[in-house]
Amino acid sequence: MVFLLLAIICTTSLNVFFKVSESKNSNRYAVTSFNCLSAMIISYIFILGQKVFDASWFEALFAEFGASVSSGIKLSSAASPAFAILLAILGGIVTYICLYILQLSTARNGSAMTITFNKVGVMIPAILSVIFFGEMPRTMQIIGVLIAILSIVLIYFKKEEASIITLKLALFGTLFFGGFLDFISKIYEFYGTEQFQGLFVFYLYFFSTILAFIAMIKKNKNIKRSDVVFGLITGIPMQFISQFLLKALSSVPAFIVFPLYSVGAILLVNIINLLFFKEKLSKRQFAAIGLMIVATILLNL
Description:
The protein has one domain (2-300). The protein starts with a helix and ends with a helix. 80% of the residues lie in helices and 0% in strands. The longest helix is centred in the N-terminal third of the chain and has 30 residues, at 80-109. By secondary structure, it is mainly α. The protein contains twelve helices and no strands.
């Protein structure tokens, strides 16, 4: 349970750092760039000593890919590294978009609603797994999706005066891209071997770093020292979240880990926001958060 608690703390600290960063009018492009760079460096440390590129990997992938997809079997250890690299290109793009939107939504909608929408994004891989992998959802998961949709309707289709939410599209972005990123990991888990998960994560941050720095240079905005510091700091908890979750899963059942992780992060961020950032939510928004917590629990069962 210690590792589960550490995963919750890392997720909470990531959201708090984004909140503080936005309060200082940080350059989002710079923060995202150094965030990805920091996560990439840490990811490389975890696979230190492991080969990171070999052209023969792609020959093996091209030979196996068609049969693997048509039969739904895992790729071999010879082909999985190439699959990890190619899938990480898409993952890197989505990671960059997700990180940028998380910052934007935190600034425009507050941390409480942002993390709540982000965590309920677990319904995206649940729905896509049914479509692409033929997985049958359990009754509780179907109910969870319906409750999540109801909570989104509560937020999206009711205009309230003096609401903290000023950019609803960003909330949906955190839900969709966060969930889609989870689905990309699901794709690797389905076809790739566990041996090269670390390589997949490294390349995911490698490609997101390249994209982030290109965007930062193209925008040509002033970069402050605080942008670099916040970016490097936030990359640390972001990378360790997955590590701590994997450790937690080795000793605690998944049906306990994922609901507690999601709900724990939502509640802790909301408590911190109420105590220190004084974010004011309406009764309708509190109700939506409550429904999303219930939906998140059901989706993870």
